[in-house]
Design goal:
three-stranded parallel beta sheet; six-stranded parallel beta sheet; alpha/beta; 10 helices
Length: 265
């Protein structure tokens, strides 16, 4: 598997605490069948403590440590860029990094909102030849309530990365159900770990991959875990299946089940 979403680099965000933890995370990646990882520390304009040059140095330092420790894990540069109206300029100025210097970039939405400028940002990025990958939208409360928001964004040229732990209920039942619906309606193009530590939010995703294999075909499983992310690393075009709009009755049923479950708890 190839992971496009990881906070393995230490000392730059809420991910790995130090180089020792980064190496432990790397070991877990290899043990769980993941051999390529994109380092995507948070880029939040006005709230970051590193420059692109410093991040690249940290990535090179980790590469050396991995080599010395004989851990067979390949790592690549990137960012998880928190969306705002000015990120297009930051990406073009290389203040915020695309994935492995490709046309693809990982974009994070707010958890509890869908800003009115999201479509404008996606449109601007596409005009500049940049393809946004929306990170873990199944966790966004607006998407949970109306997954067809993504149907529109995908038709504009956005791609979607699902967090594997979402399928195991780590973020709640409604997030899990939303993730499954997105997969069933061709609205996911990559899966990732969103690893932050060697503890709870770690690369130990084997059981979540097993769940994934029961939802999608073998061909789609390979595309989600290897084929599509490799195309990103190689800066190649990705062919996707047309998204399928989710019927309103299915959305309402999911919402009612979620409310009932919450009431029972």
């Amino acid at each position: 598997m190839i992971d496009l979403h990881s906070h393995i680099i230490s000392g730059v965000d809420d991910g790995s605490e130090d180089i020792e933890m980064s190496l432990e995370i790397a070991k877990l990646y290899v043990e769980n069948g993941i051999d390529k990882v994109v380092c995507t520390p948070h880029y939040i304009e006005g709230a970051i403590s590193y420059t692109p040059e410093e991040l690249k140095i940290k990535i090179e330092e980790l590469k050396k440590e991995l080599f010395q420790a004989t851990i067979p894990l390949e790592i690549y540069p990137g960012n998880e860029i928190y969306i705002n109206p000015s990120i297009v300029g930051k990406i073009l100025e290389v203040q915020a990094l695309t994935i492995n210097n490709s046309r693809y970039t990982l974009i994070e939405l707010p958890m509890n909102d869908m800003p009115i400028y999201v479509k404008d940002v996606i449109y601007e990025l596409r005009l500049k030849g940049i393809r946004p990958i929306i990170a873990h939208p199944e966790r966004n409360s607006r998407v949970v309530n109306d997954p067809n928001i993504l149907y529109e964004l995908i038709n504009m040229g956005a791609l979607v990365q699902l967090n594997l732990p979402s399928l195991g209920g780590m973020y709640g039942d409604r997030v899990r159900d939303t993730g499954m619906k997105l997969l069933q309606h061709n609205m996911v193009h990559f899966v990732g770990t969103d690893t932050h530590t060697n503890r709870r939010r770690s690369p130990k995703v084997g059981k979540f991959l097993d769940i994934l294999s029961t939802i999608v075909t073998d061909k789609d499983f390979e595309a989600l875990t290897i084929g599509n992310p490799q195309s990103v690393l190689d800066n190649k075009e990705i062919e996707i299946k047309p998204p399928i709009k989710i019927k309103k009755k299915d959305i309402k049923l999911s919402s009612l089940i979620g409310l009932f479950t919450a009431f029972q708890q």
